[in-house]
Specification:
The chain is of the alpha+beta class. It is 42% helix and 21% strand. The protein has 3 domains: 136 residues, no CATH class; 95 residues, Sandwich (Immunoglobulin-like), CATH 2.60.40; 38 residues. Helix 1 crosses helix 2, helix 3 runs antiparallel to helix 4 and helix 4 runs antiparallel to helix 5.
Length: 316
Protein backbone atom coordinates (compact mmCIF):
# COMPACT_ATOMS: atom_id res chain seq x y z
CA UNK A 1 0.00 0.00 0.00
CA UNK A 2 2.30 2.79 -1.27
CA UNK A 3 -0.30 5.07 -2.75
CA UNK A 4 -1.03 8.01 -0.45
CA UNK A 5 -4.38 8.67 -2.10
CA UNK A 6 -5.44 5.10 -1.41
CA UNK A 7 -4.38 5.39 2.23
CA UNK A 8 -6.34 8.62 2.70
CA UNK A 9 -9.36 7.07 0.98
CA UNK A 10 -9.31 4.07 3.30
CA UNK A 11 -8.89 6.37 6.30
CA UNK A 12 -11.87 8.53 5.26
CA UNK A 13 -14.09 5.48 4.67
CA UNK A 14 -13.18 3.92 8.04
CA UNK A 15 -13.69 7.21 9.86
CA UNK A 16 -17.10 7.88 8.32
CA UNK A 17 -18.21 4.29 8.93
CA UNK A 18 -17.19 4.41 12.61
CA UNK A 19 -18.85 7.83 13.07
CA UNK A 20 -22.12 6.57 11.56
CA UNK A 21 -21.99 3.41 13.68
CA UNK A 22 -21.38 5.43 16.83
CA UNK A 23 -24.23 7.79 16.02
CA UNK A 24 -26.75 5.07 15.15
CA UNK A 25 -26.01 2.88 18.17
CA UNK A 26 -25.66 5.60 20.82
CA UNK A 27 -28.13 6.11 23.68
CA UNK A 28 -29.17 9.50 22.30
CA UNK A 29 -30.38 8.16 18.95
CA UNK A 30 -34.21 8.34 18.68
CA UNK A 31 -36.29 5.16 18.80
CA UNK A 32 -38.72 4.94 15.87
CA UNK A 33 -41.27 2.38 14.82
CA UNK A 34 -44.85 1.61 13.89
CA UNK A 35 -47.49 -0.83 15.09
CA UNK A 36 -51.08 -1.76 14.26
CA UNK A 37 -53.39 -1.75 17.28
CA UNK A 38 -57.08 -2.61 16.91
CA UNK A 39 -56.85 -2.02 13.16
CA UNK A 40 -55.26 1.43 13.58
CA UNK A 41 -51.67 2.07 12.49
CA UNK A 42 -49.66 4.16 14.95
CA UNK A 43 -46.22 5.59 14.18
CA UNK A 44 -43.81 7.06 16.68
CA UNK A 45 -40.38 8.60 17.09
CA UNK A 46 -39.30 8.84 20.72
CA UNK A 47 -36.38 11.15 21.52
CA UNK A 48 -33.70 10.12 24.00
CA UNK A 49 -32.05 13.54 24.36
CA UNK A 50 -33.53 16.96 25.04
CA UNK A 51 -31.45 20.15 24.59
CA UNK A 52 -32.50 23.09 26.73
CA UNK A 53 -34.78 23.37 29.73
CA UNK A 54 -38.27 23.34 28.27
CA UNK A 55 -40.82 20.58 28.89
CA UNK A 56 -40.37 17.64 26.55
CA UNK A 57 -43.19 16.98 24.10
CA UNK A 58 -44.04 13.40 23.08
CA UNK A 59 -46.20 12.69 20.02
CA UNK A 60 -47.50 9.65 18.16
CA UNK A 61 -49.17 9.61 14.75
CA UNK A 62 -52.55 7.85 14.51
CA UNK A 63 -55.75 8.82 12.71
CA UNK A 64 -57.92 7.44 15.52
CA UNK A 65 -57.56 5.95 18.97
CA UNK A 66 -56.45 7.29 22.33
CA UNK A 67 -53.12 7.33 24.13
CA UNK A 68 -51.62 8.02 27.54
CA UNK A 69 -48.06 9.11 28.28
CA UNK A 70 -46.47 7.52 31.37
CA UNK A 71 -43.31 9.02 32.85
CA UNK A 72 -41.17 9.10 35.97
CA UNK A 73 -37.70 10.16 37.00
CA UNK A 74 -34.96 7.67 36.12
CA UNK A 75 -33.63 5.36 38.85
CA UNK A 76 -36.10 6.56 41.46
CA UNK A 77 -38.98 5.03 43.39
CA UNK A 78 -41.38 7.61 41.92
CA UNK A 79 -44.77 6.31 40.85
CA UNK A 80 -45.58 6.47 37.16
CA UNK A 81 -47.43 9.65 36.23
CA UNK A 82 -50.17 9.20 33.61
CA UNK A 83 -50.72 12.13 31.23
CA UNK A 84 -53.63 11.73 28.74
CA UNK A 85 -52.48 12.68 25.24
CA UNK A 86 -54.60 15.23 23.38
CA UNK A 87 -55.38 15.07 19.70
CA UNK A 88 -53.98 17.59 17.23
CA UNK A 89 -54.93 16.50 13.71
CA UNK A 90 -53.45 13.06 13.15
CA UNK A 91 -51.20 13.37 16.21
CA UNK A 92 -51.67 12.59 19.89
CA UNK A 93 -49.53 14.86 22.06
CA UNK A 94 -48.50 15.18 25.73
CA UNK A 95 -45.45 16.39 27.64
CA UNK A 96 -43.48 15.81 30.82
CA UNK A 97 -41.67 18.38 33.00
CA UNK A 98 -38.29 19.86 32.23
CA UNK A 99 -35.38 18.54 34.31
CA UNK A 100 -32.05 19.94 35.48
CA UNK A 101 -28.99 19.25 33.34
CA UNK A 102 -28.20 15.50 33.16
CA UNK A 103 -31.63 14.67 34.60
CA UNK A 104 -33.26 11.62 33.02
CA UNK A 105 -36.88 10.63 32.53
CA UNK A 106 -38.23 7.13 31.84
CA UNK A 107 -41.29 7.20 29.61
CA UNK A 108 -43.56 5.15 27.38
CA UNK A 109 -46.94 5.48 25.67
CA UNK A 110 -49.98 3.27 26.06
CA UNK A 111 -52.06 3.36 22.87
CA UNK A 112 -55.67 2.12 22.70
CA UNK A 113 -57.90 1.54 19.65
CA UNK A 114 -60.65 -0.89 18.66
CA UNK A 115 -60.80 -2.42 22.13
CA UNK A 116 -57.08 -3.29 22.01
CA UNK A 117 -54.09 -1.67 23.72
CA UNK A 118 -50.34 -1.73 23.32
CA UNK A 119 -47.33 -0.22 24.99
CA UNK A 120 -44.99 1.74 22.77
CA UNK A 121 -42.21 1.04 21.98
CA UNK A 122 -42.97 -2.48 23.33
CA UNK A 123 -44.32 -4.30 26.37
CA UNK A 124 -41.08 -4.56 28.35
CA UNK A 125 -39.22 -1.34 27.62
CA UNK A 126 -39.33 2.31 28.57
CA UNK A 127 -37.40 5.05 26.80
CA UNK A 128 -34.80 6.94 28.82
CA UNK A 129 -34.40 10.60 27.86
CA UNK A 130 -31.62 12.84 29.17
CA UNK A 131 -31.87 16.60 29.46
CA UNK A 132 -28.88 18.80 28.71
CA UNK A 133 -28.15 22.47 28.43
CA UNK A 134 -27.93 24.31 25.13
CA UNK A 135 -24.40 24.23 23.68
CA UNK A 136 -23.54 27.25 21.51
CA UNK A 137 -22.37 26.59 17.95
CA UNK A 138 -19.06 28.37 18.50
CA UNK A 139 -18.12 25.56 20.92
CA UNK A 140 -19.98 22.57 19.47
CA UNK A 141 -18.93 22.92 15.82
CA UNK A 142 -15.15 23.14 16.50
CA UNK A 143 -15.46 20.25 18.95
CA UNK A 144 -17.09 18.04 16.31
CA UNK A 145 -14.64 19.11 13.58
CA UNK A 146 -11.54 18.50 15.69
CA UNK A 147 -12.77 15.14 17.01
CA UNK A 148 -13.61 13.97 13.49
CA UNK A 149 -10.19 15.22 12.31
CA UNK A 150 -8.47 13.41 15.19
CA UNK A 151 -10.18 10.14 14.24
CA UNK A 152 -9.32 10.60 10.57
CA UNK A 153 -5.69 11.54 11.24
CA UNK A 154 -5.29 8.71 13.74
CA UNK A 155 -6.52 6.17 11.19
CA UNK A 156 -4.34 7.65 8.44
CA UNK A 157 -1.28 7.63 10.73
CA UNK A 158 -1.87 3.98 11.56
CA UNK A 159 -2.11 3.12 7.85
CA UNK A 160 1.25 4.81 7.30
CA UNK A 161 2.72 1.65 8.81
CA UNK A 162 2.05 -0.18 5.54
CA UNK A 163 4.24 2.11 3.43
CA UNK A 164 7.78 0.99 2.64
CA UNK A 165 9.24 4.18 4.09
CA UNK A 166 6.68 5.53 6.56
CA UNK A 167 6.92 9.15 7.66
CA UNK A 168 5.18 9.65 10.96
CA UNK A 169 6.31 12.94 12.46
CA UNK A 170 3.78 15.34 10.88
CA UNK A 171 0.94 12.84 11.03
CA UNK A 172 1.50 12.12 14.73
CA UNK A 173 1.74 15.84 15.52
CA UNK A 174 -1.50 16.59 13.64
CA UNK A 175 -3.27 13.67 15.33
CA UNK A 176 -2.27 14.77 18.82
CA UNK A 177 -3.08 18.41 18.05
CA UNK A 178 -6.58 17.61 16.82
CA UNK A 179 -7.22 15.24 19.73
CA UNK A 180 -6.13 17.77 22.35
CA UNK A 181 -8.12 20.60 20.77
CA UNK A 182 -11.27 18.54 20.27
CA UNK A 183 -11.22 16.38 23.38
CA UNK A 184 -9.42 18.44 26.01
CA UNK A 185 -10.13 22.07 25.12
CA UNK A 186 -13.47 22.29 23.32
CA UNK A 187 -14.75 19.00 24.79
CA UNK A 188 -14.77 20.17 28.44
CA UNK A 189 -16.40 23.45 27.41
CA UNK A 190 -19.16 21.49 25.65
CA UNK A 191 -19.53 19.36 28.78
CA UNK A 192 -19.79 22.47 30.96
CA UNK A 193 -22.54 24.00 28.83
CA UNK A 194 -24.43 20.71 28.53
CA UNK A 195 -24.13 19.26 32.04
CA UNK A 196 -22.54 21.87 34.28
CA UNK A 197 -19.15 20.18 34.72
CA UNK A 198 -15.93 20.50 32.71
CA UNK A 199 -14.74 16.93 33.29
CA UNK A 200 -16.54 13.94 34.81
CA UNK A 201 -14.13 11.20 33.80
CA UNK A 202 -11.17 9.79 35.73
CA UNK A 203 -10.25 10.68 38.44
CA UNK A 204 -13.44 12.62 39.24
CA UNK A 205 -16.06 10.22 37.87
CA UNK A 206 -16.96 7.44 35.45
CA UNK A 207 -18.15 9.35 32.38
CA UNK A 208 -17.23 6.99 29.55
CA UNK A 209 -17.07 9.74 26.92
CA UNK A 210 -14.40 11.55 28.94
CA UNK A 211 -12.58 8.35 29.84
CA UNK A 212 -12.39 7.02 26.29
CA UNK A 213 -10.95 10.35 25.15
CA UNK A 214 -8.33 10.04 27.89
CA UNK A 215 -7.51 6.47 26.79
CA UNK A 216 -7.07 7.68 23.19
CA UNK A 217 -4.64 10.38 24.34
CA UNK A 218 -2.61 7.90 26.40
CA UNK A 219 -2.48 5.52 23.42
CA UNK A 220 -0.92 8.24 21.26
CA UNK A 221 1.67 9.39 23.80
CA UNK A 222 3.91 6.36 23.11
CA UNK A 223 4.22 6.91 19.33
CA UNK A 224 4.68 10.65 19.95
CA UNK A 225 7.55 9.88 22.34
CA UNK A 226 9.22 7.53 19.87
CA UNK A 227 8.76 9.83 16.87
CA UNK A 228 10.06 13.00 18.49
CA UNK A 229 12.92 11.24 20.25
CA UNK A 230 13.93 9.74 16.87
CA UNK A 231 13.75 6.25 18.27
CA UNK A 232 12.41 3.24 16.42
CA UNK A 233 8.65 3.65 16.12
CA UNK A 234 7.90 -0.01 15.35
CA UNK A 235 4.21 -0.87 15.77
CA UNK A 236 3.22 1.91 18.16
CA UNK A 237 1.32 4.17 15.65
CA UNK A 238 -0.62 1.18 14.29
CA UNK A 239 -1.48 0.03 17.82
CA UNK A 240 -2.54 3.56 18.82
CA UNK A 241 -4.76 3.84 15.73
CA UNK A 242 -6.43 0.50 16.48
CA UNK A 243 -6.99 1.54 20.10
CA UNK A 244 -8.54 4.82 18.99
CA UNK A 245 -10.87 3.10 16.51
CA UNK A 246 -11.93 0.66 19.23
CA UNK A 247 -12.45 3.44 21.75
CA UNK A 248 -14.56 5.55 19.41
CA UNK A 249 -16.66 2.60 18.29
CA UNK A 250 -18.12 2.76 21.79
CA UNK A 251 -21.39 4.65 21.29
CA UNK A 252 -21.27 8.30 22.25
CA UNK A 253 -22.79 9.23 25.65
CA UNK A 254 -22.80 5.67 27.01
CA UNK A 255 -22.36 5.95 30.80
CA UNK A 256 -22.52 9.71 30.38
CA UNK A 257 -23.30 12.39 32.95
CA UNK A 258 -26.35 11.52 35.05
CA UNK A 259 -28.15 13.52 37.72
CA UNK A 260 -28.40 11.82 41.11
CA UNK A 261 -32.03 12.43 42.08
CA UNK A 262 -31.49 11.08 45.61
CA UNK A 263 -28.92 13.80 46.28
CA UNK A 264 -31.15 16.38 44.63
CA UNK A 265 -34.11 15.39 46.78
CA UNK A 266 -31.98 15.42 49.93
CA UNK A 267 -30.73 18.92 49.10
CA UNK A 268 -34.29 20.09 48.46
CA UNK A 269 -35.48 18.57 51.74
CA UNK A 270 -32.60 20.26 53.56
CA UNK A 271 -33.65 23.53 51.97
CA UNK A 272 -37.22 23.07 53.22
CA UNK A 273 -35.95 22.39 56.75
CA UNK A 274 -33.89 25.57 56.62
CA UNK A 275 -36.95 27.52 55.51
CA UNK A 276 -38.93 26.15 58.46
CA UNK A 277 -36.12 27.12 60.83
CA UNK A 278 -36.35 30.71 59.57
CA UNK A 279 -40.11 31.00 60.18
CA UNK A 280 -39.51 33.41 63.05
CA UNK A 281 -37.61 35.89 60.88
CA UNK A 282 -39.18 39.24 59.89
CA UNK A 283 -41.59 39.10 56.95
CA UNK A 284 -39.09 40.74 54.61
CA UNK A 285 -36.68 37.86 55.15
CA UNK A 286 -39.17 35.05 54.55
CA UNK A 287 -38.65 32.86 51.49
CA UNK A 288 -40.56 33.50 48.29
CA UNK A 289 -43.27 30.82 48.07
CA UNK A 290 -43.47 31.21 44.30
CA UNK A 291 -39.76 30.45 43.95
CA UNK A 292 -39.99 27.35 46.15
CA UNK A 293 -42.94 26.08 44.12
CA UNK A 294 -41.12 26.62 40.81
CA UNK A 295 -38.02 24.86 42.11
CA UNK A 296 -40.07 21.86 43.14
CA UNK A 297 -41.65 21.59 39.70
CA UNK A 298 -38.25 21.71 38.01
CA UNK A 299 -37.19 18.56 39.84
CA UNK A 300 -39.86 16.64 38.00
CA UNK A 301 -42.10 15.82 40.95
CA UNK A 302 -44.71 13.23 40.04
CA UNK A 303 -48.25 12.56 41.12
CA UNK A 304 -49.19 9.71 43.40
CA UNK A 305 -51.91 8.43 41.07
CA UNK A 306 -51.51 4.63 40.99
CA UNK A 307 -51.36 2.62 37.80
CA UNK A 308 -51.20 -1.11 37.29
CA UNK A 309 -49.32 -0.81 34.01
CA UNK A 310 -45.91 -2.34 34.71
CA UNK A 311 -42.45 -1.73 33.27
CA UNK A 312 -39.57 -4.18 33.56
CA UNK A 313 -36.67 -2.53 31.75
CA UNK A 314 -35.53 0.87 30.56
CA UNK A 315 -34.07 1.47 27.12
CA UNK A 316 -31.27 4.04 27.19
Amino acid sequence: MNNRFLLWTVAVVLTIASAVFQRMTGPTHPVSGSETVGGVEVEYTFDRAHPGYSDHVVAVEAKSGEATLYHKRHKTDDKWTAAPMTRSGDSLVASFPKQPAAGKIDYFVKFEAGGKSAQLPDENDAIVLRFRGEVPDWVLIPHIIFMFAAMLLSTRTGLEFFRKEPKYKKLVAWTLGALVLGGFIFGPIVQKYAFGEYWTGFPFGYDLTDNKTLIALIAWLAPAYYVFRNNKVKYSPLIAAVVMIGVFLIPHSVLGSELDYDKLDNNNNQGVENVEDQSSLPASDEPNDEFVSASASETGGVSSSPTTFRIFNSRS
